[in-house]
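assembly run, all chains below
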Amino acid sequence: CYFLRHARSRNYVSESEVCKLESVPLDFGDYHPLKPITVTESKTKKMNRKGSTSSTSSSSSSSMMDPLSSVLDGTDPLSLFAAAADPVATAPPTDGARRKRDKDENSAVGSDFEPWSSKRGEILARYTTTEKLSINLYMGSEKGKTTTTGSAVSEKVRTRLEELDDLEEGSQKELLNLTQQDYMNRIEELNQSLKDAWSSDQKVKALKIVIQCSKLLSDTTVIQFYPSKFVLITDILDTFGKLVYERILSMCVDNRVSLPDNFSPESVNDTAKETCLNWFFKIASIRELIPRFYVEAAILKCNKFLSKTGISECLPRLTSMIRGIGDPLVAVYARAYLCRVGMEVAPQLKESLNKNFFDFLLTFKQIHGDTVQNQLVVQCVEIPLYLTLYSPAIDWILQCIAYHAPDVLLTEMMERCKKLGNNALLLNSVMSAFRAEFIAARSMDFIGMIKECDESGFPKHLLFRSLGLNLALADPPENDRLQILNEAWKVITKLKNPQDYINCAEVWVEYTCRHFTKREVNTVLADVIKHMTPDRAFEDAYPQLQSIIQKVITYIYDFALLFSVEKFLPFLDMFQKESVRVEVCKCIMESFIKHQQEPTKDPVILNALLHVCKTMHDSVNALTLEDEKRTLAALINGFIKMVSFGRDFEQQLSFYVEARSMFCNLEPVLVQLIHSVNQLAMETRRVMKGNHSRKTAAFVRACVAFCFITIPSLSSIFTRLNLYLHSGQVALANQCLSQADAFFKAAVSLVPEVPKMISVDGKMRPSDAFLLEFLCNFFSTLLVVPDHPEQGVLFLVRGLLNVIQDYTWEDNSDDKVRIYTNVLHLLSAMTQEAFIYHVDKVDSNDSLYGGDSKFLAEINKLSETVVSQILDHLKTLGREETLRRQSQLALYFFNTIVAHGDLRNNRLNQLSVNLWNLAQKHGFADTKTMVKTLEYIKRRSKQPEMSHFTDLALRLPLQSRT
Amino acid sequence: MGTALDVRVKRAGKVYRDGEILSGVVVITSKDTVQHQGISLTMEGSVNLQLSAKNVGVFEAFCNTAKPIQIINSTIEMVKPGKLPSGKTEIPFEFPLQMKGNKVLYETYHGVFVNIQYTLRCDMRRSLLAKDLTKTCEFIVHSLSQKGKLLPSPVDFTITPETLQNVKERASLPKFLIRGHLNSTNCVITQPLTGELVVESAEAAIKSIELQLVRVETCGCAEGYARDATEIQNIQIADGDVCRGLPIPIHMVFPRLFTCPTLETTNFKVEFEVNIVVLLHDDHLITENFPLKLCRM
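ok done. output:
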């Protein structure tokens, strides 16, 4: 019984005065937390550590430089930058500077140039085939044919040059019946064997592989796969080009100094030049045109080693060389490759780009020639499909041309295209390659041209799609806008094939949203619904429909407006596959959370979004991933937080009730609802300034009841515990005492169920730290909870202690004792005349009992039990392996006594000395901590009425380790 | 292991001209010291003539041209008999490339019946126990630039069924008109052969258009000679049914070693021609022949 009777009586107000940080008067005139700190001399001295080199004696030295302040000295880097940038921005740039900049733009391709790599995947995905393919890596038979020419040729003679054409002596290899995937694998194998051959120094074999590969590009069987084949094989060529270039570059390394990026041919040594020249001679002797062209184009960059003008001489020659390629499709891809290499190596040489395009226009008529037509008949390929095979190549060429090109040039290009009959193909490429602004400004012209196109040629919906893509990026002239939409939609709506239709409509929705009101958007949506509903066509168009929704909510993010678009919800009904439907709902909710600034009570929005949220919620099932659930819950929570009925609290509560019934499967939502309802209760209290009327009291009780019946449905035990505690606190604050009691009782009875391990972020963790934290929190609340008149004194505290007593703690943990020690803090606080804190308008035990001696006796009895428990436990720790724990606990307990006990009592004093000694007894005490603790006691002894600490300090010996 | 012998000339391209000094190093690498009976270096240049199979026999009896014609031959003793230290030993050398009297240093040429080749041979004589070591290294001789300016001699040509010779059934030929020109038949060997070709019209589809470079080698003497034409290389300039009316470039790089400036001597001749070969889809073959004169500038 020594503890509580001698609990130190506290005067919380004065203590807080003492403990508060000293407030320092500030001169706000030039005070800023991030300003350099000026330290006066006297303080500097005090703060100088031993060994500090600063020996300054100036009166206002800033020798203690704050690392941050040096940055902020004067101007920060950003403002410096801004200052430096300013004159450029304001003053017109000098001609010299501008010219230089223009030059820079010309000589390098900027990031605004869409690189080939991004086109690559698109082409591979688009141009596929199910037909069987073949790779023929030996063309010896053809050579036999040509050697029977008129002039006498001795057949037995075979020069080394001719041998280049064979991959290996007699390695005729024809792979037939390959599926597309097989084919791609084979090509990848070839790519690999090229690298292998190169790294094993078999340069000639490498060259042979490349030649054989590029030969494949002259083969147009299975023509619909040709664009993809081109992509695959030019990858190999790129690899080869890079290998050769790097090899020659590595030969130029002189004394380990490699050449700078923009080296001149003079700095290249003879060996490198000779090697380079050798490559060109070898390539020049390749018999067939197409391999010769591709391989030379692949190593175009190597011309840099030989002469300054090499590339600019080569490009026109290679360009005109393509004229020899008879098949227009093969030729146009050869041009695309040349443009690609050209843009990479010498983007400033625009002339050959244009030349390539003009040459293509000259051969354009070939497409409709007999040779091509016969081929199509044999392969059973329709003209419209055939024409689309050209698009990637022409798009690319035009893109290269249009890059940073003046409008005049683009206009000229367009005029040239116009002159050719059936120019839909070109028109389409012009629209995909030229600047969107350029196209948009001439939208009406383009619509006119599209209309004139031949129906049987290039598919028209693709043309409208391309135009739509441009209009999504750039705005047409104000006056034309409506007419453009009308003209375009007139055609689009007539498209029969749902896929064609939706591909077009998807693009045009963006234009509509961008420039028009909800009326037009509504019409468009209605039209889409009309087209996609028959035969459930929407089932094949989910990605497009989804993209339409995306676009609509990007532009119409005012949800009141959005839901007044009548067809919006019917449009959502088309998403009948659940996964897609949920995706769409998620998009909508994301947009709502992002854009909704003010809380809303608009019934239209609420109804619609509740529906949307319900859809998301209903998609949750046993197989749903945790992550997905979390996302969905976060979205729904975001929505719940944005709903407010203002002062109409009852409506608000009934909304929460409805939400609870709707979203019962998502725990985080229920948690959010409980928090919201608690908040609602507190809001009511705030409005009533703490004095509830009968009506508000009933309302608050309804809120409390809501929480009370919702919490048990949660599965996470700590969520439940914390919510019980939290809701209990809210109930207490709203003077619902019996309800608060109920919450706390529920919490107490839940504690035994806390498992040893809980899952935190998917990992199993011991739960004790959480439990400890919760219990401390709980005990702090219990201080202010008044005793129930019909229950015994401190029945909640006792109840909780009993639960803790019975709880099966880990065998080797001291948590129970730590809690007991903390309970002593509570008990000492309860003996005070006035408690440290109160709940407004709730009488706590201090005023209920008024320091009644019976009450104090009860507390004493309790604390006696607790202390004896602690001491018992300390005894059990006497074994070798637990001595460290014993020492720690002893010190912990010691600290508690020093802080809360009245040490004028001799027995308590003696106990603390014993604990101190116990802590040090076996050498497990941390010397530093002990020294600090002793220092603290000595300091305390200087305070008024604390003189007995002086004696205590004398009785506490410090044990040195040595 | 053993001893390795290598001859390296200084120039990366190994190309030398009359009057220049051929310099380089002989490199001997060995782990141990090398005992030798002297190292010598020989520079040789010769023309090898080979008689084609069909002419042998008729010819052999009359004159003995098959014997190589020596152009140049000189030997120098590099190291007297003795020992070389272990490791890598480099012995530099210089050979003046000078012809005596009226003799001409022909340009290197690798043909079928005529071969003009220059080599450097390093011999290391060794004692009876070890084999002699020999290493040969070919170097390339380019003749001096010819004096005077090369006169371009452009040729225009038109090919129609009517212009063809050697046609069996002229009636069965499809109609066609191919025009074109060569910028010059007098060619600088380092510059490509250039020109243009236009398929103005052709009834049948075109399969391929090729440039065939042909060498014409003549061996013999006053008593008789053999003349053979063989293909050096074949370069395709058009593949497939090309666009009508669009000029297609004619462009051919002369291969090194296999061509040389047109050469005419008492014993042999090396001349070049180019054939433009048009292959039609029905396997008709149309050839137009142009003799070339190559020179080095």
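The two ends of chain A are 38 Å apart (CA to CA).

The first strand of chain A starts at residue 133 and ends at 136.

not gonna interpret more than that til we talk
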